[in-house]
Amino acid sequence: MSDSDPPITLYRLQACPYCERVVRTLQDLNLDYTSRFVEPMHSERDVVKRVVGSRPVPAIVDERTGVTMSESANVVEYLESTYGDGLVGVDGGAN
Amino acid sequence: MVDFDVVALPETDHVAEGDRAPDFTRPLVNDEFWADASLSDLTADGPVCLVFYPMDGSFPATYIWNELRDRALDDLLTVVGVSISTPYAHKRLIEERDMDFDLFADPANDVAEAYGVAHDLDGMAGVSEARPATFLVDEDRTVQYAWVAEEWPDFPPYDALEAEIRALVD
From B58, which residue of chain A is nearest by alpha-carbon distance? Predict the structure, then answer.
């Protein structure tokens, strides 16, 4: 990754409602993110297994905090508790 | 389906019941070859169910075609799909789904634009595809029934669609 890449990477499946829920949260919080799309078949998601430890999506990697996480309710809660109300500034430092 | 609100798609001014369905010509793919064909070529032989669906390989594409195949709607009228996928991808989808439906290839998404069902994809820069939509078009190319997705994802109301088809062809 270059320095200009957004620190949050979202592994997602096109049209997956759980993934779109995370996208909506990222957009609501004005967070930049990189989308990496994977295939519907779990067996073709080795990259997610390698990075996250298991194959379900959505999954996020947040370079800013070092957090790697899957399951949309958990991810939404994490994003809102970490970035909601400006808890963490976009420059990475705590406000 | 899920315990939270599914993402809503913006309202769109799409082709509606009573409108004349825009004609178009695109490569039409079957299990053996593809050749340019027009919607009006198909309606000349009878009513057509025109199905816009997300790109081949996406899970909605698989789900939608499995359902339409299992309902054997092609016994009643011509069912034909449209997506932005290439003829090569369409041939693979037809083989994998073991289906008797032909598919139009519309990589530039112009047909979806003409029908008012284009959908710019978040996270895939420059890629616009069709949102799921079905149009039941009669021999005069008048739209007798229209359904257009309002959420992402969203799936055709299969029972209502089949009832409309049976009412039209019976």
Answer: A14
> Is the whole-model pTM more than 0.80?
yes
> Which residues 78-117 of chain B have a CB within 8 Å of chain A?
none
Please give, rounded to a whole number of angstroms, the shortest distance from the CA of A7 to a CA of chain B.
15
Q: Identify residue B51 by its one-letter amino acid code.
A: V
* Strand order from edge to edge, sheet including A67-70: A33-37, A8-12, A59-62, A67-70
* CATH classification code of A8-86: 3.40.30.10
Residue among B45, B32, B58 at smallest CA distance from B154: B58
CA distance B167 to B161: 10
Per CATH, the architecture of B7-169 is what? 3-Layer(aba) Sandwich (3.40)
Q: Which residues of A touch B66 (CB under 8 A)?
A: none
From first to last of its 95 residues, what are the pLDDT tens digits of chain A?
455 788 999 999 999 999 999 999 999 999 999 999 999 999 999 999 999 999 999 999 999 999 999 999 999 999 999 999 866 665 555 54
Do B57 and A39 make contact, defined as CB atoms within 8 angstroms?
Answer: yes
